[in-house]
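ok so i was messing around last nite and threw this chain in just to see what happens. nothing serious, just curious
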Amino acid sequence: MPVQMERHNHSFGISCRHLQFTPKYRRKVFRNDVIREMCRGVCSLIAKELKVELVAVEFGHEHIHIFLANCKHYSDVQLANRFKGRSSYGIRRRCHDMLAVYGLGNSFWSDGYFYETCGNVTAEARENYIKRGQQRHWIVVDHKGKQTSLARFTK
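result:
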């Protein structure tokens, strides 16, 4: 179902973001159902606090995709900091014993993150973003016959 446009006093439109975070050392923590559901619940709480729409939360074994809508009042940095900081605290606090086996130390997420703005996020669009995100996490660009390898999206 497409996201509804948002109306303000002097504006009308839609603002969607796709964020992708990776746990420290690319540990496959999201194979654990309890950790995965705890992360989904914390992300839902954060979205409610920020008054943004959480369109979807999808998981790979070692990363998370978060799709947000109607978040025009926040920059990508603000969204990433809020979601990473608050979710790390909540997950480590509630799942401390389960996380001990992964050797994450005092942090849950790696330092980097991936972000992009996206149009109206439908189920098909989410699937496309996730499939693309499941591939290798770097891009090779061909500029006039020269191949350049770009830096990794996430650490």
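not much to say yet. The beta strands are 6-7, 12-13, 16-21, 53-59, 64-69, 114-118, 140-143, 146-149.
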